[in-house]
Design brief:
Number of strands: 20
Number of domains: 2
Distance between the termini: 36 Å
């Protein structure tokens, strides 16, 4: 296939499999202006699938950076209510959301980290109601990626800008199964494979998982009634959608207060336009009590200090080391890809769908069941070629889940 054909198939994949638009539904697309050619293809495909309205919420990293460099500190304590209200309104009316990411990993490296932290808190608070829809799969949502020049050069610094963009497109197409020729069919098969692992984990109903490697020694207990999920999710109408393209993970929920030990990162984490690298996090009774980082320590500290819930975990995800993204031997500097090359954990809010009845739990019920709540949810990668994971059942039986980084 030539590039234009692949791009068209990628748009079809995002609309038909990612958000799975049905006749009469509204769609909001969030995207940077650098991805405009792809956005137009996605808009057209959405209308072909019967969308009633497609709204595009454009962003521009250059103007965002100007604000961070020159706006007064107090402006970062605010988030426009009308933006939050628009998203919530679309979600309440059964609309879907497609995010197209193309961020420069180093965009905010020269910016005062307090500004970044304050804005993350303000946006998290303002968008909490909207995230209660996406976090509980009460609406369809998906994330895909489109290269920007800055991102491409970060991944492939040895290439010219044009060649770096071209190569990153190739990798995105490969990892998203667009290069297979029929990505919609390929994703149906892939989702089925992921569900086999999901069904095994749910059948075993493990009480806890132990992580050990040359550096990591961590115990993660799971709440009663936990549910493992993978690949495609379902909205309240029973329609499948894929929140992440690509994805290689099967994910669940740790008990908020029952995580103990120390875990080491295995890939860089990009957060708030800054890179955090070679870091460790130590837990006691679920709470983060200590952390280190060779790069981005202040950014990591600000992330952990977002709110009370950001001192705890909200997700545990299993991804084999021998996976397409991992085997590419590329650090993508974006969580969408890097988390699917490695087992990972998430600081912050848990997904309500990872526990029986979670979609309808009050905040008090969530706390009672060990379900973490936070304004943030940030994945960080912990998988390695020497990582072993053992599951322990309620009656004490031990089962090797991962051996040397892969499914046992």
């Amino acid at each position: 296939m030539d590039f234009s054909t692949k791009l068209q198939k990628f748009a079809e994949l995002a609309i038909q499999v990612g958000v799975n638009i049905k006749p009469g539904e509204d769609l909001m697309i969030n995207a940077d202006i650098v991805s405009a050619p792809f956005v137009r293809l996605a808009v057209e495909e959405a209308y072909k699938c019967g969308a009633k309205n497609v709204y595009v919420d454009w962003a521009d990293e250059a103007t965002a950076l100007i604000k961070y460099l020159h706006a007064p500190m107090e402006s970062f304590d605010e988030f426009p209510k009308w933006t939050a209200d628009a998203r919530t309104s679309i979600a309440k009316n059964g609309g879907a959301f497609l995010s197209i990411i193309s961020s420069n990993p180093d965009l905010l490296k020269e910016v005062d980290p307090i500004k970044v932290s304050n804005f993350q808190k303000a946006s998290g608070k303002a968008l909490k109601e909207w995230r209660s829809f996406t976090g509980a799969d009460k609406c369809k949502w998906s994330i895909v990626a489109v290269p920007s020049p800055e991102w491409a050069k970060k991944v492939f610094p040895e290439l010219s800008e044009e060649d770096a963009i071209s190569k990153l497109w190739d990798k995105i197409f490969d990892c998203s199964r667009v290069s297979d020729g029929d990505p919609v069919a390929a994703w149906k098969e892939h989702n089925a494979t992921l569900k086999e692992k999901m069904n095994f984990l749910n059948k075993m109903n493990f009480k806890k998982l132990t992580y050990t490697s040359s550096k990591t020694n961590l115990t993660v207990e799971l709440p009663e009634g936990h549910v493992w999920l993978s690949g495609a999710s379902q909205d309240p109408k029973g329609n499948d959608f894929n929140p992440n393209i690509p994805t290689e993970e099967v994910f669940g929920m740790p008990h908020k207060y029952k995580v103990n030990g120390t875990v080491f990162s295995t890939k860089p984490l990009v957060y708030g336009g800054n890179i955090i690298n070679n870091f460790s996090i130590t837990f006691k009774d679920g709470k983060i009590i200590d952390w280190t980082a060779e790069e981005g320590y202040e950014t990591l500290s600000n992330l952990i200090g977002t709110d009370d819930g950001s001192h705890y975990l909200g997700e545990v995800a299993l991804v084999p080391y021998d996976s397409p993204i991992s085997n590419s031997n590329i650090v993508f500097y974006t969580t969408l890809f890097d988390e699917n090359a490695s087992c990972h954990l998430a600081i912050g809010s848990a997904y309500a769908t990872n526990i029986v009845g979670g979609e309808n739990m009050s905040d008090e019920d969530k706390e009672k069941h060990g379900v973490n709540d936070s304004m943030t949810h940030v994945d960080f990668m912990v998988g390695s070629e020497d990582l072993d994971i053992v599951g322990v059942t309620g009656d004490g039986e031990t089962v090797q889940i991962f051996k040397a980084g892969n499914w046992a």
